[in-house]
Write a structure and sequence with these properties.
Elements: E1 4-9, E2 12-17, H1 26-43, H2 46-50, E3 53-61, E4 67-68, H3 70-80, E5 87-97, E6 103-115, E7 122-135, E8 141-150, H4 157-161
Parallel strand pairs: 3-8
Antiparallel strand pairs: 1-2, 3-4, 5-6, 6-7, 7-8
Length: 162
Amino acid sequence: MLVLAPLALGGCDRVVPSAETFVAKPEVQALTITGAIVAAVNRGDAAQVSASNAPDYELYSHGYPNVVGPEDALASNTALLKDEAITFAIDNVRTEVSQDGDMVVLTADYDWTYTDSVSGEVVAEQGNWVLIFKRQSDGQLKVWREIASDTAPAQSPAAAGS
């Protein structure tokens, strides 16, 4: 909703948007948070990755136990981001916003490079990433649910490029 407040400055009539105008749309908020998460992963900043999680956050990811709650998420991210080979990129990002704007579903394709814990090799994985944002009592959107699912077997970066 755009609210305009008249403001007279030195004899000229001017319309200045109110502070309400500058509150981003839910999809913009979700995209901004998502960009910050991707950047934090690539910096190895587990605290920043976890900062956008709701108190009732849950992660469902193939091959890993479910992560439940912010403390579990921080511990999981801290352990995961010790891997110096990690890179994370997303593409084909799409959003859907609930009619009331209190929930946003964001989907994306991802490219994830990491060190395989069994083989010790650096591998590249592609998959689907789903973030479900839910508006909190303080008005902020936070990641409520996260789902990561690979779409092809992990392989070495050299094989992925051929």
